[in-house]
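To whoever picks this up:

The parser on our side crashed when reading a file containing two proteins. I've narrowed it down to the boundary between the first structure block and the second sequence. Both blocks are reproduced below exactly, byte for byte. First block:
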Amino acid sequence: MRRMEISTLVRLGFKPTVAKTLYYLYNKNLPVTSKDIEEGMHLRQPEVSLAIKELRDKNWIKETVRNDHKRGRPLLFISLHKTLVKQQIVDDIEKRIKTLEHLEREVVEW
């Protein structure tokens, strides 16, 4: 996923907000906050929260809590398990290809 476009992720079945969040996280080499994602991808806070939840449910992100200021709420830093994400996307594509090949054989035999 060198410089995979957001539109490619959407065509693969990701919701646009999840695709943008995934794209942002993939292209960052250090943990970011949800605020960074909001500003970097021009998304609203609820959109980022839902996208993060979806990525969390897939176990694609690592979350680290930091409270550097000793006051206020601690910050949640998010990073992506890039190798896992790439492998699961490739596995999903391969599964889709096998399904299409099977359907093609059925149509030809029909």
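<<boundary where parser fails>>
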Amino acid sequence: TIKSTAISLYYRVEENLVKDLKDTERNFLINLIDSPGHVDFSSEVTAALRVTDGALVVVDCVEGVCVQTETVLRQALTERIRPVVFINKVDRAILELQLDPEEAYQGFVKTLQNVNVVIATYNDPVMGDLSVSPEKGTV
């Protein structure tokens, strides 16, 4: 059976990384919910989104933005959740497709452009600019 899986991670920010935080603000409990990407589990994705502060959207660098990726992004944006994109399976670009660094980079750029098209299509203007890019720390 495919179902959502949750895990909790404890993280403490070191003082030398962020000096403006009080000692009591340095501790974070991060709850990750891995929800199935299959279309039959859209309700589980929606339920997971309703208890989260953010969404980590994993995109295969070879497959790119698939129909279900678009669906999950739309669900996140509908719930007013800010997405962060993770480009996965980079090894496939190198080993299977044997892309040189420039070709791989151009493939990543195209993937991010496609993600941003989906975001622009479903974004609520109240949320502001949700486009993703490495410069913004959202990839």
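After patching the parser it read the second block fine. The chain has four helices and four strands. The beta strands are 5-12, 27-34, 54-60, 82-88.
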